[in-house]
Amino acid sequence: MQLIVNIIVLAAIYALLACGYVLIYRVSRVLNMAHGEIAMLGAYLLYTTASLFVANPFTAIAVAVVMSLTVGVLVYVLLMRKMTGEMVLAAILTTIAIGILLRGLIVLIWSAAQQHPLQALHFSNPSLEVFGGARISACAALMVVMTAVVYGGLFAFLRFGRWGVRMRAAGQNPLLAAQRGVNLNAIYALAWALSSLSGSIAGMLIALDSGLDQTMVVIGLKAFAPALVGGLDSLVGALVGSLIVAAAEVLAIHYIDPLLSDVVPFLVLIGMLIVRPWGLFGTREELDRV
Amino acid sequence: MSRPPRASGYFRTSYAQDLALVGTRFERTSLGVFILALLAFPFIASAFQLDLACQVFLACVGALSLMLLTGYAGQISLGHAGLMAAGAFTVGILFRETNAPFWITLPAAALVGALLGIIFGLPSLRLRGLYLAVSTLALHFVVIYIGGEYESRRGFSTGIVIDPPTLGGVAISDGRVWYFILLAAAAATLLLCVNLLRARSGRAWRAIRAHETVAEALGISIAGYKLLAFVISSAITAVAGALFAYYRGFVSVEAFSLFLTIQYLAMVIIGGMGSLLGALLGAAFVTIFPYIIETGLLALPGAQRYASLLFAVNYAGFGLVMILFLIFEPLGLVGIWHRIQSYFLLWPFKHRSASGSRR
Fold first, then answer.
1. CA distances to A148, A234, B242, B288 from A155, in Å
2. Which residues pair with A129 in a beta bridge?
3. What is the least distance, in Å, from the CA of A123 to any CA of chain B?
């Protein structure tokens, strides 16, 4: 029972992070390798606002969320806008460079020591008992709920929202979308903002649950595997991929070797790339054999 | 890809001239002076500068191999650190388990690198661009995991210590000897790359990079040449890793993090894509960059307070430089160098005449 709960929690973490990859890739065909760092930045922002607004933790959370939205927009407007239409390698490298820059700045501002936003917010993190005697921490439970909320929101937004429809159009065919009067720059900025938001929420919740330090970057990279297993341009895929990768990882840790935790997602990823490179639900793009 | 600008009046009139690596007398003289300077350097440099030069040469070997793969054959690899780790661990494991001398371990490292090159290269037959980058990234983590697993299983949890290699019964530990060994390694790699690139293989790689379908139509075996690029590049990279292990006398997975891959990619980018000179310039720049930052930071007032932040400043500065190059100077240092060259060649004019332009 505990295993199933662990799988679901890990899958929620991966799913929240993976949808950031999917959003940006789906709209602008850029792979954001700085996603882990952006998530980490969100968590650190929460830590700062928590110590600024000591009396009112919910204001702190709200301010941090708004700031993380701004981070996404800024990254796009200042840097990624100039990389549209460049080579794949150049775009990937720019995001990697952004990641390094953010990591350096984060250590400069907040130091490399482990922080505990949970205490700063004066929340407690009780262990809850769910069905069958399995235990789950309150933050992890919140994580699962938030994942459901974020995915529900994204589905509704992309399906029914005006901007959501524009976003899908821009992803499908930027040229035609632009001709129909869709403001591509605004769409891309929106995609970066949403991706940064969902990533930051994930980062904040991970930080609340288990403290905050540089290792979050690794989680961000690992979350890349579920995004690709499910198909880089499919949100449903990201959910399913997260479940698959999380299940593989938790089972491998439990039955084989705890050290495997950093490799299993990548092994699953390699397997997927060999069998079906475009992922479970992804659209098959220019990956055909030459 | 930018070609070196040339003054007018230089024409090749024989096949021998076409094959020569250095054509004009000016090139010969400047190359001679440069080589003399390199040979004289260890006798005037301090131990610190010597170490720095050795690091640059090591980086040159790695950057050249990555340039071959990414800059010329156009195959993105994010697994460079993994391949270096494989070379280093081959040396470490062979040394620890069988006490093998360096003339066994170095070829063994190259062999392991070549084998891994096939494994890293296999996805490239099916995947392109981003997906290839991701698959090599995944393989990087697998290699690092295997290395870490070996370390912890055999009880070298902090790393494997390697004795300096012995040549004719004498242990090589002197900085100057290392300087010449690594200089020779870098020069040999450069020569190998130059010759590979102007032979059939180099033309095939460039064709694949430009357009795979057209290359196939021209009768180039895409799969073969892609794998060849991966195999050669990985073998060189593994040897670079092996040399690194001997030079440091120590192997540990921590040294081969993803950041190392990023550093090598930065060398290729900052130096200038599709240019061997760029790989060398980039290697020197990226290796020396942290020391520049360090000196600059320590020169500021209140230096002691910043000392603990050095690592973070390095990170941030490195990311910033990479972004600046990617956005404002995609041709890299080599592009700047060629611009300076053409400025002097064309002086007092500003632009090459449109009809005589070879670019």
1. 10, 11, 51, 49
2. A135
3. 31
Name which of B106, B52, B117, B128 is nearest B83 in CA terms.
B117
Q: With a cut of 50, which residues of chain B have pLDDT below it?
A: 1-2, 356-359
- In angstroms, the CA A195 to CA A154 distance is 11
Phi and psi at residue B25, to the nearest 5°:
-65, -40
> What is the ipTM for the molecules in this complex?
0.83
Spatial contact of B286 and A60, defined as CB atoms under 8 Å apart? no
CA distances in angstroms from B163 to A226, B100, B166, B193, listed in the order given: 43, 11, 9, 30
The predicted structure's pLDDT at residue A150: 92
CA atoms of A268 and A264, how far apart (whole Å): 6
What is the spatial distance between Cα B152 and Cα B154, in angstroms, rounded to a whole number?
A: 6
Q: Which residues of B touch A279 (CB under 8 A)?
A: none
B302: alpha, beta or left? (left if phi > 0; alpha if psi -120 to 50) = left
Instruction: Classify burial at A133, counting beta carbons within 10 Å of its beta carbon; exposed 0-12, middle 13-18, buried 19 or more.
Output: exposed
| Nearest alpha-carbon partner for A78 in B168, B27, B324, B167 | B324
* β-strands B166-167, B160-161 pairing: unpaired
Domain segments of chain A as ranges: 2-214
- In whole numbers, what is the pLDDT of chain A averaged over residues? 85
How far apart, in whole angstroms, are the C-alpha atoms of residue A157 and residue A165? Answer: 8
Q: What is the pLDDT of residues B145-181, one digit of tens each?
A: 888 888 888 877 777 888 877 776 677 778 888 899 9
* 3 state SS of B78: coil
Q: What is the DSSP letter of A76?
A: I
Buried b (16+ CB within 10 A) or exposed e, A253-268: beeeeeebebbbbbbb
CA distance B343 to chain A (A): 27
pLDDT in tens, A12-55: 999 999 999 999 988 888 888 899 999 999 989 988 888 888 77
Nearest-CB residue to B309 (from A79, A92, A108): A108
Give the span between the Cα atoms of B307 and A115, in whole angstroms: 22
